[in-house]
Amino acid sequence: MQPIQRRILLLGASGYVGGGLWSGLSPRHWVTGTCSSRRVAELIPIDLRDETALAALAQQGFDLVIHAAGLVDLEQCEANPPLTRDLNVRSVEVLIQALHGTSTRLVYLSSDNVFDGRLDAYTEDDPPAPLTVYGRSKVAAENLLRDSRHVVVRIPIVYGRSPFSDRFFERFRKARTLAQTDIVCTPLYLPSLAPALEQLWDYSGLLHFGGSEVMTRYTLMSRIRDALQLPTEIVPVRSAELPGGQLRPPRLILRSNRHSLSGPGLEEALADLRSMASP
Ligand SMILES: NC(=O)c1ccc[n+]([C@@H]2O[C@H](COP(=O)([O-])OP(=O)(O)OC[C@H]3O[C@@H](n4cnc5c(N)ncnc54)[C@H](OP(=O)(O)O)[C@@H]3O)[C@@H](O)[C@H]2O)c1
Asked: Is 65 in the pocket of ligand 1 (CB under 6 A)?
C-alpha cells in the first residue's frame, strides 16, 4: 500500500543519515531538506542555533519535522559540551515550542549510545545509562519529548550509501581502515530507514529500530569489502587501541517491544550495494 503523501521538513538532509532519508523519502513525499556547513543546491541552509529562523521554518505547515541534524562525533561532543547541548538539545526545545498548537509532529532521531552496553540487548523499557556527552545529550532531548505526541526513534550504527555525505564509504577509499573486533551491534542498512519511518511516524513516544543481525564492526566492514571486492585492507583492532575507544560501549543490541520491524540482513543489503555503481 502506498504511504500517504506528507509534507516533511528534514533537518540535516546534507548529513549522512539525513541524506539517506532525503533519497528515500523525496520520491514519495514533499520534502524540504536543510543543510548547514555543506552547501547543497536543493537544500535550504539553516543554523539550528538561529532559534528565530528555526521556529519560523518549522511553522510553515509541515505534517512532520524529521530532526536528523546535530553534533554526532563522540570526540567532538566530549570536546564541546555547550555546542553539543545547543545542537542536540536546545534545538528540540525550540521545535517543541514552535510546534505547540500546530498539527505538525516531530520525529527525533536518537541513538543506541543512550545505553552503556552492560545488558545483552535493550528494548524501549530499559533505562538509559549514557557514558558520553553525546549520549547524555540524546537522553536530554528524549526527555523533552517524553509523554508528548511526538516520536523518538533510536537507531544503531548505520551503513550504506548516502548522496551528500558518503561518510561510511569514505573509510573504503583508504588503503587500510581500522575496525573494532570487540564492538558488537545491530548495524542498520541506511536505505531501510525511510520505509521504516513511514510505518513508525504515526506512533508517539519512544521506538527502537535496528538491523536484524548482531555482528562486530570488523565483520561488517570485512563482509562489505569482500562482497564489493574493494581493495581496502580491514585491520582488526581492539576498541581500547583507538583514540576515544573508551567512549564506545562494547555491546549495543537494539530490540523493540513496540513493533516487529527491523532492517534487512547483511546479505540482502550487500546484494543491494552490489547492484549500485562501485565507489
Ligand atoms: N550515523 C550513525 O551511524 C547514527 C547512529 C545513531 C544515530 N544517529 C543519529 O542520526 C542523526 C544524524 O546523524 P549523522 O550520522 O547523519 O550525522 P552527520 O552526518 O554529522 O550529519 C549532521 C547533520 O546536521 C547538520 N548540522 C550540523 N551542525 C548544524 C548546525 N549548527 N545547524 C544546522 N544543521 C547542522 C549537518 O549539516 P552540514 O553537514 O551541512 O554542516 C548535517 O546535515 C543524529 O541525530 C544522530 O544522533 C546516527
From this structure: no
